[in-house]
């Protein structure tokens, strides 16, 4: 009746169970099961249990199902993976797996999957595949084994062996038991993401199985029919599996798959066999997954148009979820050249959804779809509707709508007057929701085009004059605002808004005033009076005060020629990725790249500044957005051609003179290469791959080589370091015949590493987010590196791309270690020992005695020490067998001197390494790095 009464009752029960377990008389199996079951129930009520574990383990040896079941259940819920009982539990599980009793085997497999610890994975990862593919395993055992293996693979992929059983797992798709097939599809879908080529044979089997399900009547699969829909879960899983690969190469398989997809679309048109929501949910789940596969292949025009028409019917469905899903899928269809026109036919329905939908998330998807379907033929209508919607839009999505309107106005501007009018109208409506990126982009376009400046200035002036514009419209107004009005009138109008503007806008206005003095000397006295006013010279804002003082002095003391030179017209902005588009991508997240910057080259997009020359296949094509500035950025240099053998992609790079590093900045490049490229933070990427440390160690004493290689990708490195600067060339080779899509390599600085070392992008491999690397091709990326302070952990290299539709991601440690900035220093013996004694404090020395992992060759040791960055000093150590080195670690903040001594003992096959610096962490870190090389 109360919490206190419950606790009292539970404590009484626990005391009784404890006395039973401690009693002299051995408990029978039933009693032991009963008490263990009570303990489990008490634990699930939220009370701690600190005994009974051994009794639960003893139940595992019982031959009765009910007793064994409770034992496994208790272990799965209560036993910690680090428990000392794990060894006993593993022995019991091994016995049950070997018993060939299907019930006991399933209990054991369920326990392994539920606990899922690495210890269990190490113990059973090799046994479970054998059970899975054994010819005499029962169907229920196969099903449990497949799901258990999937659980272990997700927890510890390195423990699950690939090999001879791979092909046999694929053939489980032919199994007669639908439960086995369902479990096998889940397992194969996960495994093929890492090793797509090993599981490629699953395509034809999946198509065959899907065809049999789709073409069967519901009575044929009686046990697996859900509300008149045959095997809906299996159908969805098979369709998702097929999305891991490109379209089938075999014409017969492809034809059968197309027939399946057409059948699903046809069935969607049939009247429902049941009015229950479960029927429509199952039916629509298959339909939407089918449409996802059609979109993924993007190669069947007929199916794409049919999918679009089917989704169009859902746009006015009474179910909100269906309307949302239809809009979301149509956004992707709008980026396909085959279905773009079909999507446009639904423009009126989508506009109506934007106005009338009750759910804000559905309205947001409608706005996304309008953005995706926009081209030159409907740009004015869509921009007009989005501006109208902006007046009543939800605050949560206003900024996003503003960005989209700004991008579309630029992308499909038929003439500049429409573009300027649209942007000014956007400013009037959105006000504070117009971000700085929109301002910057408009200013960039207006500044870089002489033919648009006059109209823009005239329009802004008239807006201000009529007091119809927002105050923010003061900001982009040029100095020569409108030649039809005298300069004093222009100045008077601008200054009348001064006190109403923000501090940033006032600062811009002060700069505009000094330019007025240069262009229109008749305004000099008036403007100097404004600058001389106490409200300016004694302004509380230091920026405004400094500008007023400097501009007043400049206008008073400088001659006309000097003033004209100082206030010379700004040069055109260098063209780069639109800051508005970059911000929208950041808001929508990395997955939105394809929708925001799709590969469809729209023939209707604005080309009023001339076409763009086609680029080589290894360089991505320019963004389809309009080039209003007429300043297309030059494409990065083409990557070196791939060599004949896909397995040896980097041979040209390391054997020939190509890509010689140079530490000077490349033209039109920030000295550190820190361009306007958005980068994910450490929280956005996964942990480094297990072999990342081993790969990093290979590069401690060398600068060139293959950093990473698997069946899909080869990453090569060529780098050079000088003092605290470095330049690194990364070469990404596609070893397959299938194109990589959305290829995105990014450097990430974990923690506060950004304050210790800068790794900036000099030249990204491509200029677009949705980058592509063709099969057998190679692209190059340049990193410019600067060491600011001593650091202990390297930056991370995150590589993401899509292969055959499946996302691939790996994180490596970039081969940038502190010793790369080690400059060798020659020293006489006397200087060395004097400095050695000065660094005699315990925290300044690091020493390590370790066993040699390689043959102790003196020449190899010399080469490694030189590669490490140290100078080798001769005739310093009394023992000629020892090696002595010296160098200075160059960072921007300080220089760290370093002395080392390596003493080999050939008889014991041991080394003693002593290293002294003025900084303790650096000593220990360098000592560890160098010791790993021997």
TrEMBL record:
<dbReference type="InterPro" id="IPR002553">
    <property type="entry name" value="Clathrin/coatomer_adapt-like_N"/>
</dbReference>
<feature type="binding site">
    <location>
        <begin position="34"/>
        <end position="38"/>
    </location>
    <ligand>
        <name>a 1,2-diacyl-sn-glycero-3-phospho-(1D-myo-inositol-3,4,5-trisphosphate)</name>
    </ligand>
</feature>
<dbReference type="InterPro" id="IPR013041">
    <property type="entry name" value="Clathrin_app_Ig-like_sf"/>
</dbReference>
<keyword id="KW-0254">Endocytosis</keyword>
<dbReference type="InterPro" id="IPR012295">
    <property type="entry name" value="TBP_dom_sf"/>
</dbReference>
<feature type="domain" description="Clathrin adaptor alpha/beta/gamma-adaptin appendage Ig-like subdomain">
    <location>
        <begin position="697"/>
        <end position="815"/>
    </location>
</feature>
<dbReference type="InterPro" id="IPR050840">
    <property type="entry name" value="Adaptor_Complx_Large_Subunit"/>
</dbReference>
<feature type="binding site">
    <location>
        <position position="20"/>
    </location>
    <ligand>
        <name>a 1,2-diacyl-sn-glycero-3-phospho-(1D-myo-inositol-3,4,5-trisphosphate)</name>
    </ligand>
</feature>
<comment type="subunit">
    <text>Adaptor protein complex 2 (AP-2) is a heterotetramer composed of two large adaptins (alpha-type subunit AP2A1 or AP2A2 and beta-type subunit AP2B1), a medium adaptin (mu-type subunit AP2M1) and a small adaptin (sigma-type subunit AP2S1).</text>
</comment>
<keyword id="KW-0813">Transport</keyword>
<comment type="similarity">
    <text>Belongs to the adaptor complexes large subunit family.</text>
</comment>
<dbReference type="InterPro" id="IPR009028">
    <property type="entry name" value="Coatomer/calthrin_app_sub_C"/>
</dbReference>
<dbReference type="InterPro" id="IPR003164">
    <property type="entry name" value="Clathrin_a-adaptin_app_sub_C"/>
</dbReference>
<dbReference type="InterPro" id="IPR016024">
    <property type="entry name" value="ARM-type_fold"/>
</dbReference>
<feature type="region of interest" description="Disordered">
    <location>
        <begin position="656"/>
        <end position="687"/>
    </location>
</feature>
<protein>
    <recommendedName>
        <fullName>AP-2 complex subunit alpha</fullName>
    </recommendedName>
</protein>
<feature type="region of interest" description="Disordered">
    <location>
        <begin position="583"/>
        <end position="644"/>
    </location>
</feature>
<keyword id="KW-1003">Cell membrane</keyword>
<dbReference type="Pfam" id="PF01602">
    <property type="entry name" value="Adaptin_N"/>
</dbReference>
<keyword id="KW-0168">Coated pit</keyword>
<feature type="compositionally biased region" description="Low complexity">
    <location>
        <begin position="614"/>
        <end position="633"/>
    </location>
</feature>
<dbReference type="GO" id="GO:0006886">
    <property type="term" value="P:intracellular protein transport"/>
</dbReference>
<dbReference type="Pfam" id="PF02883">
    <property type="entry name" value="Alpha_adaptinC2"/>
</dbReference>
<keyword id="KW-0653">Protein transport</keyword>
<feature type="binding site">
    <location>
        <position position="30"/>
    </location>
    <ligand>
        <name>a 1,2-diacyl-sn-glycero-3-phospho-(1D-myo-inositol-3,4,5-trisphosphate)</name>
    </ligand>
</feature>
<dbReference type="InterPro" id="IPR008152">
    <property type="entry name" value="Clathrin_a/b/g-adaptin_app_Ig"/>
</dbReference>
<dbReference type="InterPro" id="IPR017104">
    <property type="entry name" value="AP2_complex_asu"/>
</dbReference>
<keyword id="KW-0472">Membrane</keyword>
<dbReference type="InterPro" id="IPR011989">
    <property type="entry name" value="ARM-like"/>
</dbReference>
<comment type="function">
    <text>Component of the adaptor protein complex 2 (AP-2). Adaptor protein complexes function in protein transport via transport vesicles in different membrane traffic pathways. Adaptor protein complexes are vesicle coat components and appear to be involved in cargo selection and vesicle formation. AP-2 is involved in clathrin-dependent endocytosis in which cargo proteins are incorporated into vesicles surrounded by clathrin (clathrin-coated vesicles, CCVs) which are destined for fusion with the early endosome.</text>
</comment>
<dbReference type="GO" id="GO:0035615">
    <property type="term" value="F:clathrin adaptor activity"/>
</dbReference>
<dbReference type="Pfam" id="PF02296">
    <property type="entry name" value="Alpha_adaptin_C"/>
</dbReference>
<dbReference type="GO" id="GO:0036020">
    <property type="term" value="C:endolysosome membrane"/>
</dbReference>
<dbReference type="GO" id="GO:0072583">
    <property type="term" value="P:clathrin-dependent endocytosis"/>
</dbReference>
<dbReference type="GO" id="GO:0030122">
    <property type="term" value="C:AP-2 adaptor complex"/>
</dbReference>
């Amino acid at each position: 009746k109360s919490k206190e009464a419950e606790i009292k009752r539970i404590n009484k029960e626990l005391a009784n169970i404890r006395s039973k377990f401690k009693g002299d008389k051995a408990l029978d199996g039933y009693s032991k099961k009963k008490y263990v079951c009570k303990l489990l129930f008490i634990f699930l009520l939220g009370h701690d249990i600190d005994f009974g574990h051994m009794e639960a383990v003893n139940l595992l040896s019982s031959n009765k199902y009910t007793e064994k079941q409770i034992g496994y259940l208790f272990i799965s819920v209560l036993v910690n993976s680090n428990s000392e009982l794990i060894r006993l539990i593993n022995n019991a599980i091994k016995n049950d797996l070997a018993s060939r009793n299907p019930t006991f085997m399933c209990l054991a497999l369920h326990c392994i999957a539920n606990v899922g610890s690495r210890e269990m994975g190490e113990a059973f990862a090799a046994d479970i595949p054998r059970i899975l593919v054994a010819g005499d395993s029962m169907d229920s055992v196969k099903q449990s084994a497949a799901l258990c293996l999937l659980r272990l693979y997700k927890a510890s992929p390195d423990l699950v062996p690939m090999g001879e059983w791979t092909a046999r797992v694929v053939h489980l798709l032919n199994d007669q038991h639908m439960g086995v097939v369902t479990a096998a599809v889940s397992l194969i879908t996960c495994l093929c993401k890492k090793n797509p080529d090993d599981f490629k044979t699953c395509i034809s089997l999946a198509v065959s199985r899907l065809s049999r399900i789709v073409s069967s009547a519901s009575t044929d699969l009686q046990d697996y029919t859900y509300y008149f829909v045959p095997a809906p879960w299996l159908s969805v899983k098979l369709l998702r599996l097929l999305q891991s690969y490109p379209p089938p190469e075999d014409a017969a398989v492809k034809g059968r798959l197309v027939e399946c997809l057409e059948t699903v679309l046809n069935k969607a048109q049939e009247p429902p066999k049941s009015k229950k929501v479960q029927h429509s949910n199952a039916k629509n789940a298959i339909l939407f997954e089918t449409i996802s596969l059609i979109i993924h292949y993007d190669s069947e025009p007929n199916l794409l148009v049919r999918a679009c028409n089917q989704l169009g019917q859902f746009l006015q469905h009474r179910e909100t979820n269906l309307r949302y899903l239809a809009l979301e899928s149509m956004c992707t269809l709008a980026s396909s050249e085959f279905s773009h026109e079909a999507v446009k036919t639904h423009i009126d329905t989508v506009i109506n959804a934007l106005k009338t939908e009750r759910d804000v998330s559905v309205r947001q998807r409608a706005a996304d779809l309008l953005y995706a379907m926009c081209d030159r033929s409907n740009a004015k209508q869509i921009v007009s509707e989005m501006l109208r919607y902006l007046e009543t839009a939800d605050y949560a999505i206003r900024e996003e709508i503003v960005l989209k309107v700004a991008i579309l106005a630029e992308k499909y501007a038929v003439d500049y007057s429409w573009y300027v009018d649209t942007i000014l109208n956007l400013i009037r409506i959105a006000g504070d929701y117009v971000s700085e990126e929109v301002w910057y982009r408009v200013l960039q376009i207006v500044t870089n085009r002489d033919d648009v400046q006059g109209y823009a200035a005239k329009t802004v002036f008239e807006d201000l004059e009529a007091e119809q514009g927002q105050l923010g419209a003061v900001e982009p107004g040029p100095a020569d605002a409108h030649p039809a009005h005298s300069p004093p009138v222009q100045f008077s109008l601008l200054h009348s808004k001064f006190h109403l503007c923000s501090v940033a806008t006032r600062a811009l206005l002060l700069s505009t005033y000094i330019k007025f003095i240069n262009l229109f000397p008749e305004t000099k006295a008036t403007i100097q009076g404004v600058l001389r006013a106490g409200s300016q010279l004694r302004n509380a804002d230091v920026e405004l005060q400094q500008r007023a003082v400097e501009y007043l002095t400049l206008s008073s003391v400088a001659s006309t020629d000097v003033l004209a030179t100082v206030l010379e017209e700004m040069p055109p902005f260098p063209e780069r990725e639109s800051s508005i588009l970059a911000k929208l991508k950041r808001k929508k997240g990395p997955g939105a790249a394809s929708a925001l910057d799709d590969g469809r080259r729209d023939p209707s997009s604005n080309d009023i500044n001339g076409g763009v020359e086609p680029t080589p296949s290894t360089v991505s094509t320019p963004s389809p957005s309009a080039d209003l500035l007429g300043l297309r950025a030059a494409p990065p240099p083409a990557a070196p051609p791939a060599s004949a053998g896909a397995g040896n992609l980097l041979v040209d790079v390391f054997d020939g003179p190509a890509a010689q590093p140079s530490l000077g900045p490349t033209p039109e490049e920030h000295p550190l290469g820190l361009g306007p490229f958005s980068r994910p933070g450490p929280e956005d990427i996964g942990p480094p791959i297990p072999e990342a440390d081993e790969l990093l160690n290979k590069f401690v004493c060398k600068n060139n080589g293959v950093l990473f290689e698997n069946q899909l990708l080869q990453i090569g490195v060529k780098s050079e370091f000088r003092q605290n600067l470095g330049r690194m060339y990364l070469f990404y080779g596609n070893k397959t015949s299938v194109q990589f899509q959305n290829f995105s390599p990014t450097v990430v600085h974990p923690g506060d590493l950004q304050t210790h070392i800068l790794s900036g992008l000099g030249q990204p491999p491509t200029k677009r987010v949705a980058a592509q690397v063709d099969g057998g091709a190679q692209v190059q990326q340049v990193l410019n590196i600067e060491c600011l302070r001593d650091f202990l952990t390297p930056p991370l290299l995150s590589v993401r791309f899509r292969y055959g539709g499946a996302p691939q991601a790996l994180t490596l440690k970039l081969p940038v270690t502190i010793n790369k900035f080690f400059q060798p220093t020659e020293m006489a013996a006397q200087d060395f020992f004097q400095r050695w004694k000065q660094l005699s404090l315990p925290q300044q020395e690091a020493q390590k005695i370790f066993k040699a992992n390689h043959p102790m060759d003196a020449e190899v040791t010399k080469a490694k020490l030189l590669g490490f960055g140290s100078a080798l000093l001769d005739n310093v150590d009394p023992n000629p067998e020892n090696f002595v080195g010296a160098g200075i670690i160059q960072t921007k903040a300080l220089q760290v001197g370093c002395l080392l001594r390596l003493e080999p003992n050939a008889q014991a096959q041991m080394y003693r390494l002593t290293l002294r610096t003025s900084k303790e962490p650096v000593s220990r870190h360098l000592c560890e790095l160098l010791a790993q090389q021997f």
